[in-house]
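Most newcomers find our protein records easier to grasp once they have seen one. Read left to right, the backbone structure tokens trace the chain's path through space. Once this layout is familiar, the rest of the handout is easier to follow. The record below serves as our worked example for the rest of this section:


***
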Amino acid sequence: MELSWAGIIEKFENGELIQATVSGQTKGGLLADVDGLRAFIPGSYIDTKFRKDLSKFVGNEYTFKIEEVDKAKNKIILNRRVILEEEKAKKLAEVYGNINEGDVIEGKVSRITNFGAFVNIGEVDGLLHISEISHSRLEKVEDALSVGDTVKVAVIAVDKENEKISLSAKTLLPTQWEVARATIKAGDVLEGVVRNTTAFGAFVEVLPDVEGLVHISQIAHQHIATPHEVLKEGQEVQVKVLEVHPEQQ
């Protein structure tokens, strides 16, 4: 026993880690055997998360830090949580060291909130803000994504100090005007919705977030004083494309 105490005190003073098997459960924590000496592990010291049921740890061997030794009081306190936290911090530092702005990564949606989606990109989650999901305006994240979806994202910001990663999916997608440039040409007849009217004409949406101007002179064969005489906001219309200027949108 004296040798065991001498050994545990030496390891404590040197900051050495020890291996010990959890031998039982007691009020407020767990018990472990260390070279024939009984050690106590508070419930909050066994894992990084609160564990209501500690029975699953009994019978398993773990690495512990010796938190406290008091031979006079026959007291040995062990701590596993601090080791797990150090390992996590080391792993995160390694992960953040390998992630850079501009990286394109494939990840899986792990959680959805009203302001965006968290995407797991390995050891960490990055935030894909609702404004970075699509070039089109979204009312809610669920309109575009579900938990479990695989998405390709670009890293747009890395805050290593606060362990935050900002992601963008729309950066990798063609804009609506790039789509329009590739698919719409002069002479095409399109279906659209009147979104706004002015004194000089009406704006008709022919693709999501892509509007074209129907000049007042092109609304009807007869003379009209205002577009309101023929068109109303929200009205579905058929239009013919006269000119396309994607650079000016």
In short: Residues 81-97 form the longest helix (17 residues).
